Amino acid sequence: MTDLFCKKQRHIPGLPTPPPPSTGSTNSKHYSWFGMTSLRIDKPPLFWKMYETTKGNSQDGDEHVDFFMAAAESGQLDYGDVVVTDNWAPHRSARGKELEDYLFDYYGVCMVYLPPHRSDLNPIEHCWGRAKSYARYLVAERFLDASDTKDVMEAALNRITHADILADMQHDGYGVEESTRVSVESFSKRSIPVEKI
What's the pTM value of the predicted model, to 2 decimals? Predict the structure, then answer.
């Protein structure tokens, strides 16, 4: 998730050709994100890490392990929590298995994997889409400058709420306990700041 603006536009035959799409930025930096959502109102709705990707620093298994270790060590994960994750190769690698065992043995956290090719059922994917839409709005309304992708995305990610996470989980068909739903809905007018590492 590095580009805020599309590079192509769909052209429907018979209609005028649309103007070329805006690249939005001349900034050559690219960023990647790791994130974890929560419905617990005593935790941030979104815990995330953003880093600049370079040839020597791509999204890999080490970044994945570091992210979850930071989440566990900072108290974002509690005994009995379940982490739903997709089948991205580093999640299923030897390092990923070591991480899974470590989180279970030392923190009582269980990792559950979605079926292959079903990352659409991962609520974090909705967060990225929601944040990118809001980032485009911030730029279009000139609240922020498109040349600073990092600042724009940080502002957009900080906008994610527990109510957003609840809506995404319900959309994906996850069963949400009535008590959790009620607490999120009653809390929706307040917000715990999103935490980033």
Answer: 0.73
